[in-house]
Amino acid sequence: MSSLTMRPCGDFRTSYKQDNTIFETKTIKNIAIITIALLCSAPYLVDAYYLTLFIQISYLGIAALGLNILVGYTGQISLGHGAFFGFGAFASAWMNISFGIPVVFCIPLAGFLTMGVGMVFGLPASRIKGLYLAIATLAAQFILEDFFARADWFSGGSAGSSADPINLFGFAFDTDESFFYIALFALVFMYIWGCNLMRSREGRAFIAVRDHYLSAEIMGIKLNKYRLLSFGVSSFYAGIGGALYAHYLGYVSAEGFTLFMSIQFLAMIIIGGLGSIKGTLMGVVFMVFLPEALEGGVGLMKMTEWGNIPMVVDGLAYIKEMAIGLVIILFLIFEPEGMAHRWGQIKNYWKFYPFSY
Amino acid sequence: MTASILNIEQISLAFGGVKALTDVSFSVKQGSVFSIIGPNGAGKTSMLNCISGRYRPNSGKIIFDGKDVTHLRPNDRADLGMGRTFQNLALFAHMSVLDNIMVGRHHLLKNNWLTGPLYWASGAQKEELAHRRKVEEVIDFLEISHIRKSIAGTLSYGLRKRVELARAMALNPKLILLDEPMAGMNLEEKEDMARYILDLNEEFGITVVMIEHDMGVVMDISHEVMVLDFGKKLISGLPEEVMADPYVKRAYLGLEEEADVKLEEVS
Ligand SMILES: Nc1ncnc2c1ncn2[C@@H]1O[C@H](COP(=O)(O)OP(=O)(O)OP(=O)(O)O)[C@@H](O)[C@H]1O
Ligand SMILES: [Mg+2]
Q: Strand pairing of B224-229 and B33-37?
């Protein structure tokens, strides 16, 4: 949640349009444009390994944005987001294989299809809340997992399903370098989509339902519609994220889309900041880099003389797994409002430096 | 004779054994300020909740603007032009003041989950800005432009009440229901609020149904007053008429002797 908005002095708004921008200041807008421009040249500058990390960030990030709209902005809960992500992956591959629809169209279509499925499983949301809703979405997770394993016609069953690369005008985006651009475009597009959604009618309705559903209803907002729609939009994002994942890897298997994945999505948005579009990405970056950083740490340890003792090496592997859980717990305790909130505070600190206290 | 915009016909409402309202009927004239007074627990808020749709009365009818709205959901009543504020603040605490008031435009806006995100291409931006202009008019009217970017939850009590009024006004209501709009305010804030209520009634022609404990304000700005007691309508009429009632005098002005007479009559 943004606290007081601090604008540099001299930055006066002369129209409502200027007052309504996604970017708080011109500087921030410029930084964003430069960052995107720099990212565009990344395939020529950095190691392919980092490109794969970025691609991961973008498909997970898109899905996490959706979950934040549901959880952070509308105040509902879902333990089935991983399954919706998986549904998008299978659906896109399935439409491409079974109907020969070009992959570029399959991806948004998978978004819409997943949206429909998400809304069916979101139906209980109009009646139940909190823990009960959590359990209902947990059921969605297991039902979909079971469906992936059994519906051979859709998912290829236990064998999984292959997914063709995106092909545009005869050019196949089948390398890390080329897919990177698809990932970047999709992420920026869905990010802006989210920002615009939240600053227009439906986004305000979501927040109103979260903050005070009784007065939201008095203000003319159909509660059931928005509780359901937020499941829809959130699954739409999950579906698009999943479809990108499928056509990046070239192969989808049912094993990946477990409850653990759903919980990881939740961790991302909690760490990044509930109800923050920007924070969502911070959380995803954090969750993608954390295992890498821990891996690096373990690697360094192994190089020292300690690395020769098998017990230590095994122990480190365990610690790595635990550390992820530990970090999440630490975040919940010390940074419950997430990275976006802390980021805002740091920014304000420097704005007023040296008069910050 | 002006037409009535709101007709309440024999409303009864009970919570288990508690009879919050018993057979209450009244009508509110188009363009008037109608005040409901009565002691704590008399059923005033329950009455407003029935009108705005939060409570379903057990029996009776509510006719708003010629339509039977008894079974409509609250959001449908908003569409018909009914706005309200709450006794206990009910702003969207994490939203800015501006967004809170923009929510009031919800039923007038057309952009949806697909056109909203396509902001520039779909005309959503144009629509948002047009309604922003309307919202700014309300903001100017209620003199809250200095806090339009503040987060609603951080404001003082008096300001929050004013923002709530702004949000209800943004609905473009024909009828506005105010539940103790001046409770907990200091004298200056009360005077301001009374002026806003008068102005919104006179300038915008919005009919006002208001619950208020401050008798001075009620006497000053209402065209008609109704007294509720233990869920029953005691009396209604012009402010002077109602104040002349011995029971009301005792309850509100502490005129002991006359009230005793009334009580004897009752018992
Ligand atoms: N949701 C509810 N559930 C149970 N009882 C209720 C409910 N709402 C109101 N009541 C009861 O109905 C009666 C009337 O309450 P109401 O809030 O309408 O009074 P009021 O006139 O607004 O009082 P106040 O001046 O204190 O605001 C009270 O006895 C109250 O306890
Ligand atoms: Mg009350």
A: parallel
Per-residue tokens: A147? 């469906």
Which protein residue's CA is at the shortest distance from atom 7 of ligand 1?
Answer: B15
CA distance B19 to chain A (A): 23
How far, in Å, CA of A205 to CA of B103, rounded?
7
A231-287 residue pLDDT tens: 999 999 999 999 999 999 999 998 889 999 999 999 999 999 999 999 999 999 999
Task: Take residue A124 and report the two structure tokens written for it.
Answer: 């209980």
- At A280-313, the pLDDT tens digits run 999 999 999 988 887 787 777 777 776 677 777 7
Q: Which residue of A lies nearest to B49 if distances are taken between CA atoms? A: A218
pLDDT at A332: 80
Which DSSP string do the residues of B171-224 spell out, in sequence order?
T--SEEEEESTTTT--HHHHHHHHHHHHHHHHTS--EEEEE-S-HHHHHHH-SE
Nearest CA to ligand 1 atom 5: B15
* Euclidean distance between CA atoms B91 and B104, whole angstroms: 11
For ion ligand 2, residues whose CB falls within 5 Å: B 45, 87
Q: In what order do the strands lie in the sheet with B4-15?
A: B18-29, B4-15, B59-64, B67-68
Model confidence, pTM? 0.90
pLDDT band, very low/low/confident/very high, at A355 (cuts 50, 70, 90): low
* pLDDT band for position A9 (cuts 50, 70, 90): low
Write b or e for each residue in B11-31: b if 16 or more Cβ atoms lie within 10 A of its Cβ, otherwise e: bbbeeeeebbbbebebebbeb
Between these two residues, A333 and A310, which has the higher pLDDT value? A333
Return the ligand 1 atom nearest residue B228 CA.
21
Which one of 3.40.50.300, 3.30.365.10, 3.30.930.10, 2.40.128.90 gives the CATH number of domain B4-95+170-266?
A: 3.40.50.300
Q: Model ipTM?
A: 0.90
Cβ burial of B264 (10 Å; 0-12, 13-18, 19+) is: exposed
SS (H, E, C) A139-172: HHHHHHHHHHHHCHHHHCHHHCEECCCEEECCEE
DSSP assignment letter at A73: I
Let me know if domain A24-272 sits in CATH 3.40.50.
no
